[in-house]
Amino acid sequence: MRRVVSSTYSPLIQPAESTSHASLSRRDAAQFCLTTSQEGEQFAILQLMKHCLFAYDENEFHSQQERPDYDARERLTFRLGNQIIGHIRCVPQQVWLQGSLVPYLRASEFVLAPEHVDLKNVDAFFRCLDTTFDHYPGSFMMHRTSAAMAQRLARFGWVTLSSRFRSKAATETYLASVRGASTEQTPLLPTRRDSGLWIRLMRQVEAEALVSLYENSFRANQIGSPRSTEMWDWLLRRQAFDSLYVAIRGGNKLALEDAIDRIAGYAVVKDEKILEVVTQPNEKQVKLPLINRICSDLYEADRQEFHLEASATDPVHDLLAGIPAAKSTVPGEEIVVRMPNAIQQLAEFTDTLHQRAKTRGLELPLDLGLLIDGEKYCIHLGKRKGSLSDGKLGRSYLELTHAQLVRLVLGDLPVEQELQQGLLGASTQVAANVAAKLLDYDPPWFPAIDVLPMR
After folding, report:
1. Is residue 175 domain-shared with residue 241, that is, in the same domain?
2. How far apart, in whole angstroms, are the C-alpha atoms of residue 278 and residue 216?
3. How far is CA 430 from the centre of its chain?
4. Cis link prior to 365 (omega < 30° from 0)?
5. Is 382 found in the same domain as 245?
6. Does residue 155 share a domain with residue 170?
7. Is 221 in the same domain as 262?
């Protein structure tokens, strides 16, 4: 499989109306190349970013070079001859995907010099990226960007995942729903509860307990990406977030020897965003008290709304779904992915589907056809294994787009909902039933704090 990259800002593609004025507009893709950068080119890359007005300062650039797993070769330069005209950073990562820890590329810092911004040049950039991608393990690339940029990237083969990993609600309304009364009539939530749970800001000496807690949850709950002790140290030193809360059992003060056992959970906050809430595997009920305390603090700070990022299947999203958000809400970031070999990934996915069919009692053998942008494929789940063939469809099939195929392979396609809304077609009720039983909605979660820029 493959890897992905992410960023919060992508000045690579300008609005469509501005592209017609580009000075370089008719270059053939063969004249471009994308290569790994050398140590001596770091200054040139930084100057290119400044030239592109990239929202990224020099301190952040140097801080990235201090990341424990940093490799100068993760910075790829887009060249026209010997001239560096663009850049992208691709960091090999891993994420839990449908029960397995898989590699991908986290893509960020897309830039193309303004004088070279043209639809053909951008297309050449991504074609070169796809070729380079063949040298990495993993099945896809991931990028975190604005909603407007996600729409522009869609023209070049990037697929926007569902935004169910993010929920939002008005702080006042949320607190009223938690207390069962209006916020004016009830004092703010206390830091200590009858259960003996204390919630406060983390102290530096508790970092080791934090690392242990994350590792326990990461393995047991199969969410997020691996983080070494060195990576945690780098994240804490950078202080890209505003605050980090911890929930402690049995009193406010901790002795060094019992910190690991008594810290039940933590939460990371930046601005009005709760970016990560993690608890010990046997302490899932601690998540809500942490959110409640943070929401109280945000309300005191006159924040009218808060956002929560968590795995798309986290039940907290269902709780927040019934609470209105503030009227003047700002669109959140989107996650887009690029999967250059989606059909190959679908073929590999048939092994997982075969195992599900056996576990869930479906009668084998069975076939499920897929009409993907007019191309015919068929998933065959036999007695012993699963396989994918092309040129064949059968009577029972789904009709979907390439973007829906990418989402399907990543567990990001809510099949029953898409069928009900007419966004996904099924030729027969048999096809709809088989798809609903086999194609789970369980997308990967990409924690935001791993890519937060420094304040």
Report:
1. yes
2. 10
3. 33
4. yes
5. no
6. no
7. yes
409 contacts 346 by C-beta, under 8 angstroms = yes
Say how many C-beta atoms besides its own lie within 10 A of residue 80's C-beta: 17
CATH code assigned at 179: 3.40.630.30
Instruction: State how many domains the chain has.
Output: 3
Which of the listed residues 331, 354, 380 is the one where a domain comes to its end?
Answer: 331
Q: Is residue 369 part of a domain?
A: yes
189 and 64 housed in the same domain: no
Residue 374 lies in a domain: yes
Let me know if residue 448 belongs to a domain.
Answer: no
Same domain for 224 and 355? no
Q: Which domain holds residue 240?
A: 166-331
One pLDDT digit (tens) per residue for the chain, 455 residues? 333 333 333 455 543 333 333 333 344 545 889 999 887 888 999 999 888 878 777 888 889 999 999 998 899 999 988 889 999 999 999 999 988 999 999 999 999 999 999 889 999 999 999 998 888 888 999 999 999 999 999 999 999 999 999 999 999 999 998 876 444 443 334 444 445 889 999 988 888 889 999 999 999 999 899 999 999 999 999 889 999 999 998 766 665 556 677 889 999 999 999 999 999 999 999 999 999 999 999 999 999 999 999 999 999 999 998 888 776 666 778 999 999 999 999 999 999 999 999 999 999 999 999 999 999 999 999 999 999 999 999 999 999 999 999 999 999 999 999 999 999 999 999 999 999 999 999 999 999 999 988 76
Which residues, in sequence order, are CB contacts of 102 under 8 Å at separation 6+? Answer: 1, 94, 95, 96, 138, 139
Domain-terminating residue out of 301, 331, 361: 331
Task: Tell me whether residue 142 is in a domain.
Answer: yes
